[in-house]
Design goal:
This protein is an alpha+beta fold. It has one domain: Ubiquitin-like (UB roll). Strands 1-2-3 form a three-stranded antiparallel β-sheet, covered by helices on one side. β2 and β3 form a beta hairpin. The longest helix is centred in the C-terminal third of the chain and has 13 residues. The chain is globular. Bound molecules: zinc ion. The site of zinc ion has 8 residues, from loops.
Length: 78
């Protein structure tokens, strides 16, 4: 059973690993820990199952407060 299928961008194999991911909701950036993520072995694109996407949203909307808050550097390329 392959929950992610092949990469929709390059057709590469998508393998699940649990990692820290950036997540944006209503313009606010969050960093979520321990997220099961499908990662394309060719291009590195990340995929989430519908279940995981739902859990990520609940985690953010129902949290009683973050584990920690980190400053995020903002850098202009041009
Ligand atoms: Zn890919």
């Amino acid at each position: 059973m392959k929950p992610y299928g092949d990469c929709t961008y390059c057709g590469g194999e998508v393998v699940e690993c649990v990692q820290r991911v950036d997540y944006r909701l209503h313009g606010q950036l969050y960093i979520l820990e321990g997220v099961p993520t499908g990662v394309c072995q060719q291009c590195g694109e990340q995929f989430f199952t519908a279940d995981t996407a739902h859990q990520m949203e609940s985690a953010v909307t129902e949290t009683k407060g973050p584990m920690e808050t980190v400053p995020i550097p903002v850098i202009a390329v041009k």
